[in-house]
Predict the structure.
Amino acid sequence: MAEDLKKLIIDYVKKEYLDEDSDQEITENTPLISSGIVDSFSMVSLKTFLEKKFNIKIPDEKATTEAFDTVNNIIKLLGEFVKIDDK
Amino acid sequence: MAFSDKVREFFANELKGIREKGLFKEERYIASPQSAYIKVEYPAGSPPKEVINFCANNYLGLSSHPEVIKAAHEGLESRGYGMSSVRFICGTQDIHRQLEKKLTEFLGTEDTVLFPSCMDANAGVFDVVLDKEDAMIADRLVHASIVDGMKLCKAQTFNYKHLNMAHLEEKLQETQNCRFRMIITDGVFSMDGDIAPLDKIVELAEKYDAMVMVDDSHATGFLGKNGKGTHEHCGVVGKIDIITTTLGKAMGGASGGCVSGRKEIVEMCRQRARPYLFSNTIPPVVVAAANKVMDIIGSTTRLRDKLEENTKYFRQKMKEAGFDIKEGVHPIVPVMLYNAKLAQDMARDLYDEGIYVVGFFFPVVPQGQARIRVQISAVHEKEHLDKAIEAFKKVGAKYNILGKKKDDIVAMYGL
């Protein structure tokens, strides 16, 4: 599931935040917020997407810019709300 | 003592961090009125130096206009200095209501209510109009005051890629189940001077039954044929539900802002907008001067026409000189340098040449988009513009960037 989840988030980030003609590479370790790809205001789209997808509510105090800075960080955060199979 | 060493040390470290990141803001003391030439004490403690100002929002040159100053004096004499009240207790004079009516007529809306600033207008308006069953759909680069205003509102937040109408339409489709929806945008975005396509936004709003809110602070008074703003520029006067704007830029530049638009929304702001209810009224002297500003811009387009000519001239000459200028028609002219240090170094050298401009870099603008932002004014004469162009050429040659585009500049200086 972790691999599927990684792909799901990367695909969403590319579609939601990059221009159609962008050649920016996004991996699980690409800084999203500290690099400026996603800013703290537009981060809300990603949070809403994850909440709807997994039917969870991520409290504001957990939705920090650090927690959303890489896909790996996001997966770690999601692990607090849903069971993620590593295999 | 409540301000213990622990607290003091915490904030000293915070400030150190801000300095280390290069984000520490320093004020420059100006010992003259706002105009084409200003006397600036920089660095602090040095004797004031006369420079040509290319970084004020004084688009129409009204900040120190003799008729505006005269009106301020008369307002001070006839209506006093302060009101010592919020608007609804004993803080509304006849001249406040006159100004609101003039703004309504000029902007082509139904009614207007003044706020202490546009920041306050944006802080108050969303919470008054929308609730948790509603949606706010904003351009990703809206002004910080809109972001803060949206945070104070219970409605759900959505945003779309900057100026991207297809993405906005996706968000409108995604929010079909909400009670009310509002599309939120700046009319002109302050870092690039790019203009929201309000005609297309209105079209989408009509198709999906959404309201439209525009912060037109960088357009009111000069954009559009009669200077009404972005809605006039885009041919949608009367179709914007909420316009917030400022008196602190083109409109005399002192202070104050407003919400202008549908009369029910304006009335709701009078009843419920917290920055309106709990903040002092705009001082009579400012209101009297702003009334004169409205008379000036309502009776002639001379100043906005001059600003338009100045802007065209400066943009054209800078392009001919070989600078990488973001295309557009707005008096905000971004001279693209991409590298943060280069932007800072060039701004400093230009200051030494008597031209006051500011370098902007991440996080104020996106990473790798550092630039010098030049702001043209109707107070500039051709000689001022020529002096700036010559200084830019000299400094541009020093850094070997004339005729160079992004890739070349990045190859030399990095991102």
